[in-house]
Amino acid sequence: MTLYYSLCFGLLMSELALFCTIVCPMPFTLRKKMFHFLSENPVVAKIQYGLKITFIFVAVLFVDALQRMVRIAQEGATAKSKQEMADVRTETNYAARRFYAQRNLYLTGATLFLSLLLARVFYIILDFIHVQESYSALQQKTARQSGASGEAEELRKRVRELESELAKSAAKDRDFETLKKQAAQQNAEYNRLADVHNKAAGNVSDKKAD
């Protein structure tokens, strides 16, 4: 295997390892820290930029491997039609060339396909983490609002109790004022009757003296 195909194979193994890492079960906190690091770290951003350029070269290798496999297939079809492949060495050479062309095609194609799949899964999980964070923040906000609503309801209940007590106190004050007025009226009436009685008693005494 040539150097660039060896590098392509190493890149494919790295993609497989990274894919298994991001999809394996782990605590949400750890996953959130890992994805925030991968999406926000400037060093990782530079590595991603370099990988994008690398994948361009992998795509070129894929196109070259595809063309080579098509050319070898055409050569084999031509040789079969002319019956020129009776030699075992020629058949072996042809089979080896076809095998290498297919291997290179599958290697570069799998690398490109896994890169697209890895990018899509990464952003799906990242969006899920953002949605989960938004949902947690919304839950906390709702809990705070519920607590504030409960406090407001308690305050309204206390205000109603105070208003009821104030109304009762005002009713008692009105009853007390009514009693005071009645007592004052009765006292005035008693004084009037006493004066009348005293005048009557005084007149009787004067008549007896005469």
UniProtKB/TrEMBL annotation:
GO CC, alphabetical: endoplasmic reticulum membrane
Positions of the Bap31/Bap29 cytoplasmic coiled-coil domain: 158-209
Pfam family, one: Bap31
Domain BAP29/BAP31 transmembrane: 1-137
GO BP, sorted A to Z: endoplasmic reticulum to Golgi vesicle-mediated transport; intracellular protein transport; protein localization to endoplasmic reticulum exit site
Topology versus the membrane: Multi-pass membrane protein
Residues that span the membrane, as ranges: 7-29, 49-66, 105-126
InterPro entries membership: BAP29/BAP31, BAP29/BAP31_N, Bap31/Bap29_C
Record region (Disordered): 189-210
Localization (cell): Endoplasmic reticulum membrane
Record's keyword terms, sorted: Coiled coil, Endoplasmic reticulum, ER-Golgi transport, Membrane, Protein transport, Transmembrane, Transmembrane helix, Transport
Location, primary (coarse class): endoplasmic reticulum
PANTHER family in the cross-refs: BCR-ASSOCIATED PROTEIN, BAP, ENDOPLASMIC RETICULUM TRANSMEMBRANE PROTEIN
Protein task: May play a role in anterograde transport of membrane proteins from the endoplasmic reticulum to the Golgi.
Protein family per UniProt: Belongs to the BCAP29/BCAP31 family.
Protein name as it appears in the record: Endoplasmic reticulum transmembrane protein
